[in-house]
Fold each of these.
Amino acid sequence: DFIVTVVFSFLWLVSSSAWAKGLSDVKVATDPDEVLLLMSACKQQANKCLPVRSPVMSSLNTSVVFGYLNFILWAGNIWFVFKETGWHSSGQRHPADAMEKQPSGYNQGGYNQDSYGPGGGYNQQGSYGQVDEYGQSQGYSQSGPTSFANQI
């Protein structure tokens, strides 16, 4: 994908430049003053030749601008396609495994991140000490993990 994107980007640059040069040549060839000089009837003194109006080239100029904008779009897309290749991931300074796995002694917010499971961590046991309307204590105990972290 990366190589195809680079090739298409280069082709857009070349084709837009060729179209811009071709349009420039068309403008010179269709210039009313130049056309009048080439006509044999206008070279005679008895005939008076004047251009009626100038040619409208705005839509052709717009097509050249859009050609270059399309090149810029493809050239900008090269970076995003490059990020998806293996060449980009091999150039990283830190391996991905070292970034994902944190040491066991790392604490965040008072909770030990590596102590999920039956041996410790988020296990809370005990009573909340709520008393019902007859004066009897009801104990609610909670055990097991109460919070899960999204680890990818």
Note: The chain is about 45% helix and 5% strand.
Amino acid sequence: AAMSRKGVKLLVDSLSRSVKHFNKGEVECLIKLFDTLVARSSSHFAGAGFDRTVFRDTLHSAFGMTDDVVLDRVFSTFDRDNNGCITVVEWVEGLAVLLRGTLEEKMKYCFQVYDLNGDGYISREEMFQMLKNSLLIQPADEEPDEGIKDLVEIALKKMDYDHDGKLSFTDFEKAVRDENLLLEAFGPCLPDIK
């Protein structure tokens, strides 16, 4: 069920106004891509959107993002109403941050990706999960978990400004403003800008 011409035009107008990082032409292209993905997904969302699998494949082929755990988290940040379906608005708004976001927006986004249980903090366990997942396995003679635990402690030392043993958004933001490279400290969740 593709949208009518008029529907598309209204949507383009409204999204170009609300999503400040894309111009009309870009929004139009993203909606076309969205329609193609919906058609390909033949999902049970009746043309309203597409599911995790299509999302994962698309980010994989478009941005070379390969990590399943990270892609699942990215899906969750896009899927704002948490219904397993990416709608056209979620798609365009999510990509705006991913591709053109300000540092502020990207910090919020990365923090959300790393905050696995959504409680507003990145805990030791969450850092451990994300790092374990994004690092290549070390040589057999080394206990890989120990190395990761050390990294978690180093990250906390560097980023946990209020010393409560976990990272709040305030901690994260402060650390990233000090050192931009820390934006993706716990795993690559932004596309390589090519």
Note: The chain has a mean pLDDT of 90.
Amino acid sequence: DRRREAAGSPIQPVIKDVGEIYSRLLDHRPVIQGEIRYFVKEFEEKRGLRELRVLENLKSTVFETNERVLPKCEQAMRDNLNETLKRLQAANDMIHRVQEKEYETRKLQADKVMAREEKCIAHWEEFMKEQENKRAEVDEEHRKAMERLKEQYSAMEKEMAKYVSF
């Protein structure tokens, strides 16, 4: 306790001196507040009327824009949008017609291809029947030729058998 009391008394004046030095060197609030008051006073006295005129001009420009320019722009936009909408609808109708024609053309081509395929299939079936008939004819001819040859060879064997007995 004694040490604190002995140490506390000489330190107190030093802390006050440090606080004073700190406020003089680093605390700029009083100077800044004086500058702010000067700036506000100058602004209000010298620039106030000029700024008021600028604000009034700005207000009139905004009013004119809201009352005259904006309605003109809206009307022009409506007119142009209506025209654009009509053009888009016409283009859409044209596209639908082109698509319908293309669909009809493709369907017609598909029908033609299908008819050609059916015709080819029918022709192929007819060809195969014809080939089957020709094969049957050739087989029959072959069978008859084989019978004739058998008969001929039998006759030749009989004929040769006559000569063998000699």
Note: Residues 16-47 form one domain.
Amino acid sequence: SHIRLWALQLILVTCPSLLVLMHVAYREAKEQRLREASGDNYRCIYPNPSKKRGGLWWTYLFSLIFKAGVDVVFLYIFYRIYSNYTLPRVVKCELPPCPNMVDCFISRPTEKNIFTLFMVVTACICIVLSLIEAAYLIGKRCRKCLVASEGDSRRHSHSCSVSRADPVGTGGQVFHGADYKPP
């Protein structure tokens, strides 16, 4: 049944989003437990629990790829079952319990064809958007890692000896350069 396929597709596409929401809720609960246990000595683990960092970044990336994969699989299933994504008006049925070939009529085939077309177009848009967002997240992470490694190599490439004694008139502050970020 195409209606059951649509329902299954919608359920499988929304499940990864629920997984991301559960991950954020887990982070918030962990933060709350730590806050209650530590009292005044509380040190924040997640300044912003819904910010995509660490494990949440991977969960979100996995959810995007999973959604795109589910949509591709269902597009393939719809194409294989209903050639060219169109439902026929009449289907010749010869499966048991029918003793011979019987004409089976599909109710409202035009309405179902329009809805199937809508589902196909929506699935294609979702696939493209999910892949673009995944590529953006990966590109942003790679760029961040490259900038961080470039900063580390710059810091280590300069052979600047700084004495332990405070330079006169600086009050203990030493200028390391414009690209230096304190730890």
Note: Residues 158-183 have pLDDT under 50 and may be disordered.
